[in-house]
């Protein structure tokens, strides 16, 4: 990570490069989140859509399509599709996690109710499927419907695996592929598919999205234990308090002695937490180099993302995507 | 309704006629509800799928396809798609309605939790989209993705309209088209589309499903006020207690004097119900012929369904679908 990259945030450079297309995506999103009959739908959706997320996923689709020479209009539809799927999963996630805050604002389930979040999420999923049908490309439909199934499967797996100390790194990776990487990889892959790129390029775009998504989620899970809450918008230890078995804890559990294992069993599996437990968890994480090792894993995946870009045409967007992979892990560097 | 029809239940005759295909549908459903990684998914799904529902919607798809001369294998995929969408909406409905019972058994949200119902529902939606992509027919995808959006929109509309005394018969019809008729009409329409039927036939199949679905839901709402709980599996007055503004009450509210309006405002809008309120509600419904008029509406829609069949080829299945429309309203005759 050099100074130039650090000072010019790649996701902002991407946004500038893709500005015209992203405006079309935003217009389409606002157009399609409307509902003639049920005003609750755009109300709830706008609360999330206008909350100032980075729109990383739709930008990945647009960037992949342009990188592979796409000239048509449907990258906009697919980018909006990807953002709708993402928004729908956020609505349902907040219900499942009983969250009260997202991006520093109260969640929709708190402002309205769980019912609205469930049903408006369903509506956005359906809108996503309507949008993805419009380009008339069956392979795109195949990729996005498979990604949707992987996302939901990952979420269900997380339900049962999150508080189970037997969850190992392989299961963690499956969960992460489901909850995060599947949509990243579908977002980049469909960009290549509508551009009719070579198979090797489409495959490299998939690899990039997959690795970037995994790096992104590992960073998120790491920051939960060592982040600066002002910068991340999250409180240190949220995952611990919510008894989520993420990579740092999985690594510490794998090296735990009997007494330490009893601590994790009590705090994560049984959820009987006391004052001082988070501090003790941090001691154990540091004792076993779990945070350091987790950081190494994030860097490994970011590097994998960057390497996959070597298959793609030389283009300013290629460099931006490489820089983006660095940027994703810069928060922990 | 003659004696022959009454004694030979059309949905059972349909099931017999479509037995081989329905076995293929059931095999496909069980195959696709599996999950390599998350055993919670087939557990929750099986609880609903194996609960002994009538499988009316998939039978409508198979019947429509056969009636229009379809010979290929994809009617089975589309029938399974329709059943998956239906199952997913049931899972989410039970969360939204906070239901404890369905088809005389505890609901999934009670046996597991709301989280599992939300996420397994999402998984089944995604599986439905995977299945519907397989026939490779873009018009089918268009119809089913539109139906999914209409279903979700109807559910959200119901959220806000159900306890609002300004809800009139037009809004009720929109809700009913969303929550019930949209899937019926999509089920019949896609059967005609994959059979490459004439446009007039496809349109008639849509009309049949739409009218049958509306009749079906009106009957359901009527039986809530005058059904035999042993036969229906529901308790009289459930909708009243849950403050759902269905057609009988909408009709009574439209004719209410000031005092009666105050009663509906208190019991439905404000939900401050007391002993004897259900009995008084029934008095008001009868005073204004609301149950009788609701019954007439159900018969009107059943008749409309039957009439639309005149556009379709003469075939034993056509008669079965006509009889099915009679059967749907037979419960209130």
From TrEMBL, chains A, B:
Matching entries from CDD domains are given as:
Trans_IPPS_HT
Q: Which GO terms describe its molecular function?
A: all-trans-octaprenyl-diphosphate synthase activity; metal ion binding
Catalytic activity, per the record? 5 isopentenyl diphosphate + (2E,6E)-farnesyl diphosphate = all-trans-octaprenyl diphosphate + 5 diphosphate
Keywords from UniProt, A to Z, are: Magnesium, Metal-binding, Transferase
Which cofactor does the UniProt annotation name?
Mg(2+)
Its GO biological process terms?
A: isoprenoid biosynthetic process
Instruction: Return the broad EC class.
Output: transferase
Cite the InterPro entries for this sequence: Isoprenoid_synthase_dom_sf, Polyprenyl_synt, Polyprenyl_synt_CS
The record's annotation in Pfam families points to: polyprenyl_synt
Top-level division of the source organism's lineage? Bacteria
EC assignment: 2.5.1.90
**Protein family:** Belongs to the FPP/GGPP synthase family.
Q: In UniProt terms, what function does this protein have?
A: Supplies octaprenyl diphosphate, the precursor for the side chain of the isoprenoid quinones ubiquinone and menaquinone.
Q: What is this protein called?
A: Octaprenyl diphosphate synthase
Q: What is the lineage of its organism?
A: Bacteria, Pseudomonadati, Pseudomonadota, Alphaproteobacteria, Rhodobacterales
Q: Write the gene name.
A: ispB
């Amino acid at each position: 990570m050099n100074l130039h990259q650090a000072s010019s945030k790649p996701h902002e450079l991407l946004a500038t490069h893709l500005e015209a297309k992203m405006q079309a995506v935003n217009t389409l999103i606002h157009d399609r989140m409307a509902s003639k009959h049920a005003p609750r739908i755009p109300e709830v959706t706008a609360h999330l859509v206008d909350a100032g997320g980075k729109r990383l996923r739709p930008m990945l689709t647009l960037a992949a399509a342009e990188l592979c020479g796409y000239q048509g209009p449907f990258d906009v539809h697919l980018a909006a599709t990807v953002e709708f799927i993402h928004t729908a999963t956020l609505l349902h996630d907040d219900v499942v996690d009983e969250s009260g805050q997202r991006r520093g604002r109260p969640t929709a389930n708190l402002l309205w109710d769980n019912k609205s979040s469930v049903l408006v999420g369903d509506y956005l999923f359906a809108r996503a499927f309507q949008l993805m049908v419009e380009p008339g490309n069956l392979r795109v439909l195949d990729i996005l419907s498979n990604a949707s199934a992987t996302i939901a499967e990952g979420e269900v797996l997380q339900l049962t695996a999150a508080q189970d100390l037997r969850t190992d790194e392989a299961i963690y990776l499956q969960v992460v592929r489901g909850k995060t990487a599947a949509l990243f990889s579908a977002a980049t892959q469909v960009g290549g598919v509508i551009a009719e790129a070579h198979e090797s390029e489409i495959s490299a775009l998939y690899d990039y999205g997959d690795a970037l998504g995994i790096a992104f989620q590992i960073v998120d899970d790491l920051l939960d234990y060592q982040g600066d809450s002002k910068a991340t918008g999250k409180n240190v230890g949220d995952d611990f308090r919510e008894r989520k078995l993420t990579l740092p804890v999985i690594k510490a559990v794998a090296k735990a002695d009997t007494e330490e294992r009893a601590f994790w069993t009590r705090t994560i599996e049984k959820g009987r937490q006391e004052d001082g437990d988070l501090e003790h968890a941090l001691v154990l994480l540091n004792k076993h180099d779990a945070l350091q090792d987790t950081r190494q894993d994030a860097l490994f995946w970011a590097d994998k993302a960057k390497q996959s870009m070597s298959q793609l045409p030389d283009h300013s967007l290629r460099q931006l995507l490489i820089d983006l992979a660095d940027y994703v892990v810069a928060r922990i560097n």
